[in-house]
Amino acid sequence: MKQIVVIFFACLVAACGTGNIQEKPDGKWELIWQDEFENEGKPDVDKWSQAPRNSADWARFCTDSNATRFVKDGKLHLRGILNTNKNDTVKYNTGCIRTTDKFSFKYGKIEVKAKLDKGKGSWPAIWMMPQDPKYGGWPHSGEIDIMEYLNYDTIVYQTLHTNYIDIQEKKEYPPYFTTVPFKIDTFNVYGVEWYPNRLDFFVNGKKTFSYPKIENADSKQWPFNQEFFIILDQALGGNWVGSIKDEDLPVEMLVDWVRVFKEK
Questions:
Q1: Residue whose C-alpha is closest to residue 106's, from 254, 249, 244, 230
Q2: Catalytic residue among 111, 143, 193, 252
Q3: Contact, 27 vs 224, CB < 8 A?
Q4: Do residues 124 and 115 lie in contact, with contact meaning Cβ atoms separated by under 8 Å?
Q5: Is 23 a catalytic residue?
Q6: Complete domains list, the chain, with CATH
Q7: Sheet of 155-161: strands edge to edge?
């Protein structure tokens, strides 16, 4: 979720955002956790908690409100809106939920089927952070960004953050992110397969790039040997995404389902 300093266009699979959505995994995977968002109202409190508001760009407007995160018609709705609550001093409210202390995992496969909204300042994201950061605060214990989207783009970003990438600035060998063309007016499936020696990223079942554990790597390059939890949010504005256009609000990320698997 931090700003990507060097942005270049790299999609290792042509038109990887336009393939058929894969609703079922192949036979090597066993489902261990899911939310199909079938019960209307608040997100399931046994699975999700409210992400707190703080000074991080993505969390500045997180709001524990039914107007910004709710389940309806079989979909999770995460919204970025103009604040209408006079008791809240911020201008905007955003939907932000996470599975911290409720569900986390190490190695396996995660897929999220979601539909995004265009808008100046819109910044929806599907990502993961360490449950108990064993190597210290950000970025030392790692971050896995399964999907981020900005403004009116025709691409999504898939990114990793570590000490090796963000402090040592070793960003090319191996590459630490990619951008993927996609269709914004429909649902797409964003995913990661996580192994002890690499992370493979996917859009609609097509691999977009792979980040390997390099030989003799320590935690600075490979902190991905600990459990991570899931975050879903519809952020607004910030240093990376830029300013917010009020006329484009509300914006919304719709999530059809979230599924996590382990290898059989």
A1: 230
A2: 143
A3: no
A4: no
A5: no
A6: 36-263 (2.60.120.200)
A7: 49-50, 96-98, 228-236, 122-130, 143-148, 155-161, 177-181
Report the chain's terminal Cα–Cα distance, integer Å.
31
pLDDT tens-digit profile of 107-163? 999 999 999 999 999 999 999 999 999 999 999 999 999 999 999 999 999 999 999
Residues 6+ apart with CB under 8 A from 175: 10, 209, 211
Identity at 43, one-letter amino acid code: P
Kindly give the confidence (pLDDT) of every residue in the chain, 264 residues in length, as a single tens digit, with 9 standing for 90 and above. Answer: 644 443 333 443 334 444 455 566 678 999 999 999 999 999 999 999 999 999 999 999 999 999 999 999 999 999 999 999 999 999 999 999 999 999 999 999 999 999 999 999 999 999 999 999 999 999 999 999 999 999 999 999 999 999 999 999 999 989 999 999 999 999 999 999 999 999 999 999 999 999 999 999 999 999 999 999 999 999 999 999 999 999 999 999 999 999 999 999
Query: DSSP character for 5?
Result: S
Out of 23, 30, 148, 215, the active site residue is 148
d(CA 145, CA 165): 14
Tell me whether residue 148 is one of the annotated catalytic residues.
yes
Residue type, 159: T
CA atoms within 13 A on the CB side of 119: 23
C-alpha span between 223 and 194 (Å, rounded) = 12
Q: State pTM to two decimals.
A: 0.91
DSSP at 83: -
